[in-house]
Amino acid sequence: MKNLTTMINEWFPAEEVNAHCDGPCGVYDPADARIKAEAVLSMTKKILALTPPSDGDAKAWASYLNTMSRYIAIKEEQAQKAKDELLVLWTDYFKPVHLEKYPDLHDTFWQAAKLCSACKVEVNQEHAQELMDTVEKIHNIFWATKGRDVSYYTAS
């Protein structure tokens, strides 16, 4: 079997290929991070707006706690997913040539990752908004590296 494989490789040699990133071009896009960061901001606002029942109504408290726990679970899950998306962009897409043009690139991504962590453990609308702002900065840098002007938009 090994000889057969060797013969096939000799008859039909594979062409050498090169890529500037780990995945094929076109698979990277900061939009996924934006969607997840926006969910973090939305859930943070909902948590802060949720009013606990004022009386000892067990049903009302059960409903309140259920809603609150769902908002928290979504916020934390989306913050982790945003972090994962950002880290893939940082480590797989961006290369040393990008650092030459954007010397604060590492710090920007580091701050974004730290904000994702902060948004998981806190209920802080300011940090959630800072995450959105940092994701927008990353969006602008990313598309500039591709020589494209892609508008940044949010769902809300």
Proportion of residues in β-strands? under 5%
Q: Calculate the terminal CA-CA distance, rounded to whole Å.
A: 60 Å
Question: CATH-wise, what's the superfamily?
Answer: Nickel-containing superoxide dismutase
Query: Quick one: CATH class?
Result: Mainly Alpha
The run of helices and strands is: HHHHHH
Using the CA coordinates, give the radius of gyration.
Answer: 22 Å
Number of helical segments with 4 or more residues: 6
Integer count of domains: 1
CATH architecture field:
Up-down Bundle
The helicity comes to 55-70%
Which class do the helix and strand fractions yield? Answer: mainly alpha
Q: Any idea of the CATH topology? A: Four Helix Bundle (Hemerythrin (Met), subunit A)
The pLDDT mean sits at 91
Shape: elongated
- Main pleated sheet: none
Instruction: Give the low-confidence spans.
Output: none
Number of DSSP strands? 0
Structural notes for this entry:
The protein has helices at residues 2-11, 31-49, 58-93, 96-101, 105-121, 125-145. By secondary structure, the chain is mainly alpha-helical. It has a single domain, classed as Four Helix Bundle (Hemerythrin (Met), subunit A). 21% of the residues are buried.
SSE topology sketch:
Elements: H1 2-11, H2 31-49, H3 58-93, H4 96-101, H5 105-121, H6 125-145
Helix pairs in contact: 2-3, 2-6, 3-5, 5-6
